[in-house]
Every structure is written in structure tokens, then in C-alpha cells.
Amino acid sequence: MLRPVVVGLDGSPESLAAADWAAREALRRGIPLRLIHAWEGLPPDAADLPELEAPRHWARRILRGGLDRLNERYPQLYLSADQISRPAADALVEEAAAAEMLVLGSRAFSGLGGFMSGSVASATMAHVARPVVLVRAGQGLEDEHVPDAEGRPCARTPYRAVVVGLDPAHSCEELLAFAFESARLRAAPLRAVYAWQLPYMPTASETKVRGALRETAERTLAAIIAPWRDKYPSVEVHALAEEGRAAQVLVDVTKDAGLLVVGRRIRPARLGAHTGPITHAVVHHVGCPVAVVPHE
């Protein structure tokens, strides 16, 4: 049975942009799309309370509006939807367990409303074992493609590059699998990025050590991606071993990218931060959709 792309709807512009991105991704992968709206509601014995009618109506409207919108825009897509009477984070984590990926709207710059408000997004990402893609409001089909010859947005030009941030100290297999497949589906170039830093040392030694560290970083990166080049010969790969802080390097490299893929270490603990400082930073400062891929 095919795993669907699951998208969470909450009525915000961010979640609508996420639903559009998820629909296009489901079509690229040839898999279904499932819309989820989570509404905690009240126990069954309170179901007849008149004050519940307005929130019930709004919840149904969110889901129906999302279905109608996507059916009109993507008529060839196999689409399903469900309203779940559970807290949003719990519902999304459960749904994501059987999904190819979970897609959420991101309002990270403002920090207000949507799935990025409060603890919903962080709680969801912290406990989902599948990739989570965060999409900002305003992201449309044209934003996935490079501008035309006059610099105007265009949906008929080639796809923008996919960028994957790698840390050789941790497993990169899940990230590379997601990134290479995403690039293949788009016929897009892939930029594999490894950020390294020069340790503190006397100024007189910097030049020699910097050169040696750069060569080591380039060899390390080449060795990591070599098997994947062979596995995906059609993907144009650019290996970038860049000096600097990882978060800033990724922000710079993704300024004209269509998708960024970063990792999140799976931790068994229920409490505490689970995204890591680099992933947390890029989610807040990268403009393109960000795929957060869990790994051991």
C-alpha cells in the first residue's frame, strides 16, 4: 500500500501553501494526498451544546475548503480528508507514522498562529519518525522554478536546486536518500553542503591549516556522496565544502534554492529540544520549503 503525503490544515495561509506544495509533491511521487484537520472538541456527552456549533462549522469549513481548492487545482490527484477530534500535535504524529512525509505550514518569522505557534510544530517534529516539510505562506508553483530569461516568475522553467546539509559526524543516509530522490523527481541539480570551521589558533598558522582542513573536508564530502552519484547518475551534483557556521552557510547557499533538506537526530526522550540548533536556525531563516529528515 502506498504511503500518502499528509498535510495539516488549520485555515491559515501557511497551511494552504503547504497543501498546494504537498499536492504537487504527491503528484511527482505518484502517491495519494491526505488532508488532516485536528480539532480537540469536547467529550461526546457535550456534543449537543449550542456553543459548539460555531467551532464545528469552522472546522468543517476548513476541511471542505481545502478539499474543494485542491480538487479544482489538481483534478488528477487521489485525495482524501479527515477531521480528527484530538489535539493537533498528537493527531499529526499519529497520521505521520503511516505517511511518506508530513507537510505543515510555517510562520516561523512571526511566530504567530498556524502550526508553528506555541509547541504544536516543535512537538510534532520532535516525535515524527518520517520527514516533515515546512512551507511558508506565499510559496507557489513558480517559486519552485528558476525565473525566466527576463527574471520573471515562471512555472515552465527548470526546477530550482535542491540543497542538502550534511554532517559527516552523523548518519547521512536518510538525508541523502530524500535529497537525491527529490532532485531526481524534479530533474533539478543537487547541492550537497558540508560546512567546516577553522579552530582558534595563532594567525601565522591559519593559512596552512585552513588549506589542509579544506582539502580534508572536500575529500570527506566526496566520499559520502560518491555511492549516491552512482545510484542516481541522472542527478547533477555540486559538492560544496564551505568554511563557516553551518546555519549561515545553509542560509547563503539556499537563497535561490527550491528545497532545503536537513537532519534531525532521533532521540527517545519525550522532553527537551529535538531539532538541534542548526535545524532550528534554518527553519527560521531559510525562505524555501525545508524538509527535516529524522535519522539515528
Topology:
Layout: E1 5-8, H1 13-29, E2 33-38, H2 53-73, E3 79-84, H3 88-96, E4 101-106, H4 120-127, E5 132-136, E6 162-165, H5 173-186, E7 190-196, H6 203-231, E8 237-243, H7 246-253, E9 259-265, H8 277-285, E10 290-295
Parallel strand pairs: 1-2, 1-4, 2-3, 4-5, 6-7, 6-9, 7-8, 9-10
Antiparallel strand pairs: 5-10
Report the end-to-end length measured between terminal Cα atoms.
25 Å
> Runs with pLDDT <50, length 5+?
109-118
Percent strand: 15-25%
Rounded to the nearest angstrom, the radius of gyration is 21 Å
Tell me about the biggest sheet? Answer: 10 strands, mixed
Look at the structure and give the CATH class of the largest domain: Alpha Beta
What is the CATH third-level topology name of the largest domain?
Answer: Rossmann fold
**Which architecture of the largest domain per CATH?**
3-Layer(aba) Sandwich
| Count of the domains | 2
Number of strands: 10
**Order of helical and strand elements:** EHEHEHEHEEHEHEHEHE
**CATH-wise, what's the superfamily of the largest domain?**
HUPs
Q: What percent of the residues sit in helical stretches (DSSP H or I)?
A: 25-40%
Explained architecture:
By secondary structure, the chain is of the alpha/beta class. It has 2 domains: 1-135, 3-Layer(aba) Sandwich (Rossmann fold); 140-296, Rossmann fold, CATH 3.40.50.620. Helix content is 39%, strand content 20%. The protein has helices at 13-29, 53-73, 88-96, 120-127, 173-186, 203-231, 246-253, 277-285; strands spanning 5-8, 33-38, 79-84, 101-106, 132-136, 162-165, 190-196, 237-243, 259-265, 290-295. Helix 3 packs parallel to helix 4 (120-127) and helix 7 (246-253) runs parallel beside helix 8 (277-285). The model is unreliable at 109-118 (pLDDT under 50).
